[in-house]
Amino acid sequence: MVKLSDPITIRDVVFKNRLGFPPMLSFSSNRNGAPTSGSLRIYEDKARGGAGLITYENTNPDPPLVISASMAHIGTEKEVRKYKKLTDKIHEYHAKIGMQMGYGGIIALMFSGFMNMQMITSGPSVLDPVEATSAQSSMVPGFADRLKKLGSGIHELNIEEIAEIEEKLAQGAVRVKDAGFDYIDIHSGHGMLFSAFLSRFYNRRSDEYGGTVENRCRFLVETIGKMRKAVGEKFPIFVRFSADELLDDANNIKDGIEIAQILEKGGADCLDITQGIIIRSPDGIEVPTYVDHGGYIHFAEAIKEVVNIPVIGVGRIIDPRMADKFIQQGKADIIYMGRQLLCDPETPNKYFSGRIDEIKYCIGCLQGCRNGVCIYDDYSGAKYQELKPSIELKKIVILGAGVAGMEAGRVAKLRGHEVEIYEKSNKIGGLIPLVASEYKKEDFMNIVKYLEHQLNKLGVPIHLNRDLTREQIDGLKPDILVLATGSDATIPVNLKDKANVINQDEAILKTKPLGKNLIVWGLDTYWRGGSETAITLDSQGYNVKALVGPELGTAQILRGDGDSGRSYGIFKELTERNIPIYTEAKLLDVNDNTVKFLDKNKKEVSIQADNLIYCGARITNAKRLKEQFEGAAPEIVLIGDCKKPQDIGVAMRDAQTFARSLK
Length: 663
Ligand SMILES: Cc1cc2nc3c(=O)[nH]c(=O)nc-3n(C[C@H](O)[C@H](O)[C@H](O)COP(=O)(O)OP(=O)(O)OC[C@H]3O[C@@H](n4cnc5c(N)ncnc54)[C@H](O)[C@@H]3O)c2cc1C
Ligand SMILES: Cc1cc2nc3c(=O)[nH]c(=O)nc-3n(C[C@H](O)[C@H](O)[C@H](O)COP(=O)(O)O)c2cc1C
Description:
This protein is of the alpha/beta class and 663 residues long. It contains 23 helices and 27 strands.
C-alpha cells in the first residue's frame, strides 16, 4: 500500500514524498514581479519543513497588465536569474519546486469591484461582468455598482490572440525550466483564463474553442502541446483545474471527469484537482471552517478512477494522518496542504519522524494567510524575524491566560525570562472556547491547545482561579506586569435596564434565558463575529432576524476582500437559512416582546422578539486595572483585547511585539 512518505516519480522527476505545498499567492514579489528575500523565506520554510513538492504561487508569463506591487511574473531573463537563486536554495533540502503559471483573465474584474479600476479583461465570451463575478457582486456592498459605473467588461479572445497566448506560455515555460524549477503547473482553475474556457458557464463560444467539453479544452490542450515541444520530454507539466465549480449552472464533477480524460490524452503529466471559482464560489478555494476537513477529496477520488496519471487532492486537510489515509485509500497520489503549512511548515518532518504532538494546527480563519504569514505568528513567512535570547532577564507576571497572555508568556520564556501567568477563571484560552462554540468554529481551539502544549513544555506555570489583589502582586515583585485581561461584552447604556436585552457572550454561552424569537443587532464585529452568532443561534433552532445599525453606512456586513471564502461562506449560510437582515436600521425601542426600529427607508418597523442580542463593541477593563496596580511593577504593559478589543491576530501580534521588544 502506498503511503504519504513514499516517493513518487513523474516523468524524470522523483519527489521524495507525497505531501506538497500548493500554489498560494503571497504577494511577496518586488515591484518588478521578481522574488524577494521574503519570498525566499516563505518557500525555504516549506522545504526545510520536509514537503516533497512545493509549487510557487501563480506567476504571469509576462509582466501583468496591472503592475501592482507583489504580483509575480517571469517575463524576462532578469527574473529568471532571481528565481534560480530560489530554486537552488529549495534543492538544498532535496525538495522539488514547480512554478504555477497562469493568465488572469476574468478574475481581474476584482480590481474594478474592490479597487475602483476600469478593467477590460480577456475571456472566452462576452458576459455581464456582474454575473461573471456573482459572489462579490452579491455580497460586497457597492461592488456591482462600481463594475457598471466603470464600464468594466470582458473582451472575447479571437483565434489569433489565443495562438499568441499559447506561444507566450510555451516561451514562459522555457524560462521556468531555465530558472531551475522541476515542473510547471498550468493554472486552469479558479476563474483564470483557461478555467473560463473550460467552464460551461463562462464559455459561450460557438467556434472550435467552445461548446463541447473537448472544444472547451482545446486552448489548454494546444498550450500543453506547445509547452511540451518547448521544454522537452523530461520536464513534467501539471495542470490545476476546478473539477467542480460548486454551482448549479457551471461545471460539475461530470464535466471534471471528461476534462481530466481529455487533459491526460492531451499530454498532462499530473492533475491537480481543485474546485470553485474565486469570483463565483470562493469557498472552494479559500476553504472556510464550514467545510469539513478533507471535504473536497471526493473530487480527486472521482478523477483518479478514470485516469492513469497522478492526481493531487486539496482542501482543508490539516492532519497528516488524514492525508496519509487518503493516499493509502487511493483517493489521491499526492496531498497538498496549504494553510496548514503556512501555520506549521514543519508538519511533514514532525509527522514523518513521529512527533505528531508537536504539530501546530491551522484554525481555518482565513484572516492572515497573506505574505505567507499566519495569524499565529506575525513574525513568520515573509516577515520572519529570528528570536534571540534577551540580555536583561526579567521577572514577568502576566494576568490573563487568553491567547495574548499565553503567547506573550511563550515568547518571553523562550527568550530566557522568568514568567508566570495568573488567570482569574477556571480555564485557559480566554474568549476562544466561546468563539469555538460558535457554528463550525471548533478548530479555533487549536490555537489554545498549541499554546497550552508549548507553555507546559517550557515550564511556564499557569495559575487558574487566581484574581490577584494589589498586595499579592506587590508580594511577587515583578519587573514587568502584563495586563492581558481581555474585554467585556457590553449593552448600550439606554438598554441596560431591559431584561430581554442580552449581550453576545450571554447568548452564545446561554448564561441568560433565551426565548425562541431573537434579534441579533450588529453583524460586523470581530471578523464577522455577529454574523456567525446569528448563524449559530439559527443552527440551534432559534428564530433569528438581524439588524445592522446606520453607523455602518452601506452595511459593510461582509467585506469579502482577503478572505472571500469565509465571507462567502457566511453569506451563503445567512442566505440559505433565510435570516432576514435589516440594514441601516436605527433602533428606537425595545419592549417585553417587540423591537421597534426605523428601516433604511426611515419607515418604522416593529418585530416580535423575545430577546435583542447586542453584538456591538466590547470594552476593556484596562483602565480600572491600571489604576489598581499602578506602581506594582516598574513597567506595566497592556496587550491584546485589554489594550483595545480587536481580534486574535492583533492579540497575538501585540503579545509577540511586547516579548520581542524586551532587551
Ligand atoms: C463571539 C466572538 C467571536 C469572535 N470571533 C473571532 C474570529 O473569528 N476571529 C478573531 O480573530 N477574533 C474573534 N473574536 C475576538 C477574539 O476572540 C479576541 O480578540 C481574542 O480572543 C482576545 O484575546 P485576549 O487574550 O486579548 O483576551 P481574552 O481572550 O479575553 O482573554 C483574557 C483573559 O484574561 C482573564 N482575566 C480577566 N481579568 C483578569 C484578572 N484580573 N486577572 C487574571 N485574569 C484575568 C480572562 O478570564 C481571560 O481568560 C471573537 C470574539 C467574540 C466575542
Ligand atoms: C491566501 C491564498 C492564496 C492562494 N493562492 C493561490 C494561487 O496562487 N494559485 C492557486 O491555484 N490557488 C491558490 N490558492 C488556493 C490554494 O492553493 C489551496 O487550494 C487552498 O488554500 C485550499 O487548501 P488548504 O485548505 O490546504 O489551504 C490560494 C489560497 C489562499 C488561502
